[in-house]
Amino acid sequence: MSKALVPIQSERIVMLLIDTSIWIEVLRDKSQVKAAKLREIIADRNYYLPIFTKMELLQGCKDEMEWAKMSSYLAVQNYKKPDYTSIWENAARLYFELRRQGITVRSNIDCAIAIIAMENNLTLYHRDRDFDAIAKYTVLKQKKLDFAIAD
Q1: Pairing of strands 123-126, 16-18
Q2: Beta-bridge partner residues of 126
Q3: Over the stretch 61-112, which tens digit does the pLDDT of each residue have?
Q4: Average pLDDT over all residues of the chain
Q5: What is the C-alpha to C-alpha distance for residues 113 and 17, in angstroms, rounded to an integer?
Q6: Which residues, in sequence order, are CB contacts of 10 under 8 Å at separation 6+?
Q7: Homologous superfamily of 14-51+78-144 in CATH?
Q8: Where are the domains of the chain?
Q9: If you count Cβ atoms within 10 Å of the first and of the last residue's Cβ in the chain, which end, N or C, has fewer?
Q10: Under the phi-then-psi rule, with left for phi > 0, alpha for psi from -120 to 50, and beta for the rest, what region is 14?
C-alpha cells in the first residue's frame, strides 16, 4: 500500500458525541443562533447522541404535543449505545473512583455518557461542569461549548 493512501494522525476525522446539555440549549433558543453554531461545529463530521439523551429530552417535555414533536425529532437521530453488559458497573466504578478523588458527579448518567465517549474514542461536546471534572481524572476527550464565542 502506498504511504500516500495511509492517513496520518492529524487527518483523522473527529467523531462527536453531543451531550443533552447542548441539545437543551439549542432547542430552547428561539433565535436559532445556537442551532446555527452547532451546525457549524458539526459541519460534515459524524456525530451521535448518547442514547440517554433520548430519555433526558423526553422527560423534559411539557405536554403531549411537545412529546410528539420531540419523539419524532429523536426518532431520526444517530445514537451511540453502550455495551449493556458492562456500562452500569463501569459507570459506577468511574463514579466511585472520582468520589475517592474528592469529586462528586451530580448524575450517574453523566458517568455512563463519559464511558460511552471513552470506549468509542469520541470527543464529547457538552455544557456540563461534571464532564470537566471527569476529564481531569480520565482519558475523556471533551469540549465545553461556549455559544457566546467562536471556536
Answers
A1: parallel
A2: 144
A3: 999 999 999 999 999 999 999 999 999 999 999 999 999 999 999 999 999 9
A4: 90
A5: 9
A6: none
A7: 5'-nuclease (3.40.50.1010)
A8: 14-51+78-144
A9: N
A10: beta
Residue reference for cell 460534515: 44
Question: Number of helices (H) and strands (E), helices first, in the chain?
Answer: 7, 5
CB-count exposure of residue 15 (10 Å: 0-12, 13-18, 19+) = middle
Cα–Cα distance for residue pair 34/42, rounded to 1 Å: 12
Cell of 73: 425529532
Q: What is the rounded distance in angstroms from the CA atom of residue 63 to the CA atom of residue 151? A: 35
pLDDT tens-place string over residues 115-124: 999 999 999 9
The answer to whether residues 118 and 140 touch, using CB atoms and an 8 Å cutoff, is yes
CA distances to 22, 24, 30, 73, 85 from 27, in Å: 9, 5, 8, 11, 32
Bridge partners of 124? 17, 142
Residue that has been written with the C-alpha cell 445514537 in this structure = 79
Cα separation, 10 vs 16, in Å, equals 16
Q: Which cell numbers hold the place of 50?
A: 448518547
